[in-house]
Amino acid sequence: MAKHGCLLAAAAIFFSSVSFAEAASFHLGDTGSEVVEIQQALASRGYDVTVDGDYGPATKAAVAEFQNDNHLNVDGVVGSASYQALLHRAMPVGAHKSYLAGQSGIVNLAQQFLGVPYVWGGSSPNGFDCSGFVQYVYAQQGISLPRTADIQATAGYPVDKEDLQPGDLVFFAGDYVNISHVGIYVGDGKMIHASSSYGIAYDSLSRDYRVAHYAGACRVIN
Fold this sequence. Notes:
The chain has helices at about 10-15, 35-45, 55-70, 80-85, 100-110, 130-140, 150, 210-215, and strands at about 125, 125-130, 155-160, 170, 180-185, 190-195, 200-205, 215-220.
């Protein structure tokens, strides 16, 4: 069960931890309760979309189909006109929290520590272990995470490997059962992590060891 610990993260954890400010538009990469409403409205009209609060490619495609059917600008983005047509109320005003915008800051920060040595139990720029590194980086972005990798795996909501985005947490089970390592996905099939051999460094998820011991991924949003 621990091998799939990330996949056990309850949807309730995700929705209680994500809040939307008033938004100017909703688009690929956005998440939260407003996205759920958009998806529910689409689903009620017969469009093929999963109501999961994640504005992924399927939601974008459903929005584009709705726009085409209603003679709106077809771009897969829920702007004011599409929002009004879909939800029958005015679009909230202001800027919302975009997942991609927030997580790019996490990746940029993590990369600043490349070369910092590995220290067992370390959780500061003087030295990190894997979960201490992840906890520290996220804390600098105002996001509180548990201290150990196995519990960090339950701090977000599950993400399929093919849907990984920069800033997602990726987990590994050294014994094929219990989660014992964590890194931060940076894109292009790579992660940044605290390596016991190299300190803070990049690693490839396609490396044989990483493929064999991969245990899942989570997305954590403040």
